[in-house]
Amino acid sequence: LRWSEASLPAVFPPVRLEINDSEGHPSSSHQTLKGTSKWATSLENLLEDPEGVKRFREFLKKEFSEENVLFWLACEEFKKTQGKKQMQEKAKEIYMTFLSSKASSQVNVEGQSRLNETILETPHPLMFQKLQDQIFNLMKYDSYSRFLKSDIFLNHKKSEEQEENSPEAQTAAKRASRIYNT
């Protein structure tokens, strides 16, 4: 006779095991990564965190390539745009800001994949996808690895660690541990 969790009578609630380290804290494999730890796992995770984007922009500004992340963010926002008129306006704004030969913050994309202005008349949510992918890969394989070694990242990581190890944070963690491990 085999029992599945679903077939057990209600009097036998599911057993949840929690693995703790020597100090009674949940094992790190069960903790959710946050902040710099999460940023360091992938560029995608970094770009999902507003604070990560802020720090990455700060770094790229020093490298004179902030336009890359600004273009990527503009494309992400463009994909959410509703209505043809709004799409036309935003598409033109992206084109004039990042892609035109006269652009104020021109991104470095391959010449043959540049858009010409005629495509702006019939915009669609993924019209910049190929260019956005190029810029994403440029950031991922170039500036992202340098960012992880930068003072901006390392100092932020250090301040996070100091915050986590502060007496207030440890007291709150111990209080929570006593509450949930009884």
From TrEMBL:
The keyword Hydrolase does not apply. InterPro entries: RGS, RGS10/12/14-like, RGS10_RGS, RGS_sf, RGS_subdom1/3, RGS_subdomain_2. One of its GO terms (cellular component) is nucleus. GO terms for biological process: regulation of G protein-coupled receptor signaling pathway. It comes from the Eukaryota. Residues 158-182 are annotated as: Disordered. The keyword Ubl conjugation does not apply. PROSITE patterns: RGS. This is RGS10 protein. The gene is Rgs10.
